[in-house]
Amino acid sequence: MTVESKNLPVEKITELYEAGDLSAIKELLLTLHPTDIARMFEELERDQVVSLFRLLPKDKASDVFLELEDPLKEFLVSAISDRELVEIVDEMETDDATDVISELSHEDARKVLDGIKEKESIEVRKLLKYPEDTAGGKMQAELVSVGESATVKEAVQSIREKAKEITNISNVFVVDDEGKLVGTLSLDKLILADEDTPVREIMNTKPVKVTTDVDQEEVARMFRRHDLLSMPVVDKEGHLVGRITIDDVVDVIEEEIFEDFYRVASLSVEERPLDPPLRSIARRSPWLILNLGTAFVAASVVKLFEDAIASLVILAVLMPVVAGEGGNAAMQTVTVIVRGLALGELEIRSAWRVLYKEALVGLGNGIIVGSVAGLIAYLLGTNVMVGVLLFLSMTVNLFIAGLCGAVIPLVLKWLKADPALSSSIFVTTCTDVAGFFTFLGLGALFIKLGLL
Amino acid sequence: MTVESKNLPVEKITELYEAGDLSAIKELLLTLHPTDIARMFEELERDQVVSLFRLLPKDKASDVFLELEDPLKEFLVSAISDRELVEIVDEMETDDATDVISELSHEDARKVLDGIKEKESIEVRKLLKYPEDTAGGKMQAELVSVGESATVKEAVQSIREKAKEITNISNVFVVDDEGKLVGTLSLDKLILADEDTPVREIMNTKPVKVTTDVDQEEVARMFRRHDLLSMPVVDKEGHLVGRITIDDVVDVIEEEIFEDFYRVASLSVEERPLDPPLRSIARRSPWLILNLGTAFVAASVVKLFEDAIASLVILAVLMPVVAGEGGNAAMQTVTVIVRGLALGELEIRSAWRVLYKEALVGLGNGIIVGSVAGLIAYLLGTNVMVGVLLFLSMTVNLFIAGLCGAVIPLVLKWLKADPALSSSIFVTTCTDVAGFFTFLGLGALFIKLGLL
Q1: Structural domains of chain B, with CATH
Q2: When you count CB atoms within 10 A of the terminal residue's CB, does the N or C end of chain A come out lower?
Q3: pTM (2 d.p.)
């Protein structure tokens, strides 16, 4: 997915900034969407960002802050005063406020919690207790609820009272005397009902709901299955404690998919393109060192066949072709399987079927690619038996690539680990070892048999 | 993202099927969610699927059909009668009906279009004209609209009339006498207004809207930026022609991210885990043959240094370590950049900054990993100069890996191509060539200088 870069007035702003015309900048900023301002801030000098940030009205500043990348957020928190931070957090909904406060130092968090409105502070303190990747961590305390004896008119009155502080109201939640959820009522039902109708009579009495401890992936799945716009969150006893809205779920879906993508490539999920270099080095080098271990395993296979290589150097020339091709074929298999498991298109119960299929595909592609490779080698002037050797070893290696590419994520899944976890490292080790072993092993055999 | 497999009653169904107890199966199917039935169908024998599918009431059959994977959809279309297909399509909303009909043969499509209700048929014929990945292709014709002189009471009356056939009503669209969009009105605004208020007075007069030709990625981006639940679609003259709802957008977001994932691994975006093997072979082998071409380029670099390898076989043993490590480092860089460009965290204008950063990260990781590799080689008993050679060549290669890993997707993006397109093939070619060249080239130099 690519996002077209809209023309942001970065140069214009820099020009006005250098001319010291802050009021013109302010006017310009007010015409821009918070997302665009945030994207522009990422491009500007940090001192300049602080000055511009202070020009924004508090509600807009709050929206812009939420759209910034973590490093710039951290910088702003350190650059602005405690009072300014409190004012910005005060503008946020409780779920966003919780996310921001959970990233602060213990001391800063306390200052902000003491500074913001008491009602919001109490809610945020509750929300802070839930792990970030659960329904509790994703929910917000802002919602419209009515007692089960309420009428449609009273429900509308409740919406009226909350309409200013809550966006995206799509449901009214109905609770009993103890605050336990007994039903939900969508706005389109509400709008069609007579105002004296008790909500009890028209509410959905079996609403889809989650408890606070449910994983965010499961929450996303429920939203998709039932085409929901919002969902109530309850505690273990069934008391209504919050709601999750579809816009938060969209973020979860995006986040989770890219996590798979990152894990396949052995990356920390926190990495961002413009992280400071030292941070990236610290995050990536452990994986590369792990990969080094596996690379030496593959090298030790080559070492077994030193004599064969010494007597026929063309083996060293062509062995990376066999191993590399296996690596690519295996990554195709891994990608298809990781995606299938992630989207639920593939179940662990179909493991044997997909394994059989991928082994067949590997064999088929091995025969095709091996033939082409053998032919190319022959046309380039090598001994015809080198071509045969390439054909045989690529057929075997792509077959093994299909097997490994399927087995590794499926076994990880079966072990309840993430199927994407470092698949690329494990899988390429597998195809390197198999590729070197088959190509050099068969080569040594051919030499022994006098075929080469 | 992983989806836990719920216990589907596959065995129970198979048992009942073998006992011929269709009415018990029907009862069981009625208790299941369409998504679950669809997942179960993917597991069953195809003959069985047809029998079970026919047990479902038409509206549920329609929902189940939409959740099936393409191969099973195609099979069902061929297995059921034209009349059955018409009945199922008749139950769908226009956007889904359009998707289904667009996949049919010309003849089948005509039969279905002639068979379904005339009003739906006219709408679907219109929708079929729009490319699938545009706002026109994603929109549905079902919506609630009122004239600009309408009152709140009349708007509620319009909702009442449409409520049965339309789900997820979250907005009423307001049009002028010519059918041009002049505003939108959300249900929460509507519910709070007095019933005699003209909609004109409370509507949003600057709603976010798209024209039919806008790409689906841009549509998804607009939903996210503005936290929308639905969005009106207009033609070039501004006439209201349809609406897009958030649930369709969630599918687009998922689809687009996985497309990137697939493109990096050189896969056709249509591939699914349980495709027939021959289809997978046909789809994957062209990419593997392309990769073969680039692999021979890398092999030709090795060939340049045959003499060095013949005199010092350890070079052949260790060269895959240098190249492989470069490949992994480059894939880390590619993944971070493809993700950043996709999510808009990275703009093409920051290209130089990210290039500089990735080159630095590559250099840093090269020094770290090269040192470890050199040390391991030395501890394994190779000549100390082989360790030095490993250190130097890995430092250079990981530096180049950082550069290539960043340059290739950024250049693709700059050329307005997909930055993810086959990045893995191009990037590993780059690191293979660079790895072999630096390691073997320096090795040959060391030999010439008498250091090895």
Answers
A1: 10-134 (1.25.60.10), 145-264 (3.10.580.10), 282-448 (1.10.357.20)
A2: C
A3: 0.75
